[in-house]
Write a structure and sequence with these properties.
- The chain is mainly α and about 100 residues long.
- It has one domain: Cytochrome c-like domain (Cytochrome Bc1 Complex, Chain D, domain 2, Orthogonal Bundle), CATH 1.10.760.10.
- It has 5 helices and no strands.
- Helix 4 crosses helix 5.
- The protein is elongated and about 55 Å long.
- The structure holds heme C (HEC).
- The site of heme C has 19 residues, from helix 2, helix 3, helix 4 and helix 5.
Length: about 100
């Protein structure tokens, strides 16, 4: 659902007329109900750094990865998706990822 919202926002942004467009538009607020997230990650460092853009399941459903593969994943989130993850936290994040139940 979060993913759908992100796609909807991207589509909206793409369709939005240029700022200097002479067309007068009126923006409205809509009410929408998103499902409550029930799955949580066991480490605060993961909740803080990894759940802004996608649900915990994105991480909890991955196959067992090696430390360097998780590090590459964190680097990808920062590079490709501009995740605001401080590099000084990488080692702590990778350790927390390796301790997840799906990584045993
Ligand atoms: C700034 C937003 C953002 C943050 C923060 C973020 N991710 Fe992602 N992540 C994404 C996007 C976008 C995708 C691709 C989603 C898709 O393909 O549907 C993704 C996909 C993934 C995937 C699926 C495999 C892949 O590479 O596409 C994993 C695993 C993942 N993220 C792990 C993490 C972890 C671990 C963290 C925290 C260290 C994190 N993400 C933080 C945006 C983010």
């Amino acid at each position: 659902m979060k993913r759908l919202s992100i796609i909807a926002l991207v589509l909206l942004a793409a369709c939005h007329p240029a700022a200097d467009s002479p067309t007068k538009i009126t923006l409205t607020s809509q009410t929408m109900t998103l499902p409550t997230e029930t799955v949580t990650l066991p480490a605060e460092v993961l909740t803080v750094n990894c759940t802004a853009c996608h649900s915990p399941e994105m991480i909890l459903t991955q196959p067992k990865l090696k430390p360097e593969q998780w590090q590459a994943e964190v680097t990808k989130m920062r590079g490709a998706y501009k995740a605001q993850i401080a590099e000084k936290d990488d080692a702590k994040i990778v350790a927390a990822l390796l301790a997840l139940p799906n990584q045993k």
